[in-house]
Amino acid sequence: MTIKVAYLTFDDGPAKNTKKILAILEQYKIKGTFFVIGNKSPYGIRMYRRIKKLGHRIGNHTYTHNFSTIYSTKGAFFADFYRMERYLQRVAGIKTRLVRFPGGSNTRLGIARGGVKTIRSIKAELKSKGYLYLDWNIDSHDSNLPRPAPGQMIQKVLHESKFNKNCIILFHDFSDNTLLALPAIIRGLKRQGFRFGVLSTHSFNYQMPEGK
């Protein structure tokens, strides 16, 4: 029997809906993977700690998520990246080897800002330092403009999941429609025979090919 695993991932938090997303995951007894950015607010600090306490996985999504800055040079990227790493360690005692590039590892905006060589050099240094970057093979499109309706998100994710035995699904903490779509997506994935996992240095991974 083929084992099918879905990895629910949430980018750009802690954001306004992080607490509610955690409640949904807790309701369904599922662990997720959160790629977080810098949030100095008391709420943000509570959310880093709550994500950790509830047993979810955390990845570094850079501190500022500012494409113009972080992709300008390799040095600029790592200054921002290590700022996030230090911040997570200080406020929540979190040390992670997981990385997600803002916009994905083949981001057109990043390439336009710093060039292909800069992106490649960042990837090479991450690897040499023992970090692992992870993209996604299903995009819920919850960050697209105009925002898709919850039903459109549900249909897209559950259609594409039929063609993958391992699904890394991209959501965003700030999306109101993700809150509405997530329970139905979870139930639909369960009906398709998926179990749920968290990303790690040993889990299934997907890295976008250059130029896709």
From TrEMBL:
InterPro entries: Glyco_hydro/deAcase_b/a-brl (IPR011330), NODB_dom (IPR002509), Polysacc_deacetylase_ArnD (IPR050248). This is NodB homology domain-containing protein. GO terms for biological process: carbohydrate metabolic process. CDD domains: CE4_SmPgdA_like (cd10944). Gene3D superfamilies: Glycoside hydrolase/deacetylase. Residues 4-197 form the NodB homology domain. GO terms for molecular function: hydrolase activity, acting on carbon-nitrogen (but not peptide) bonds. It comes from Cohnella abietis.
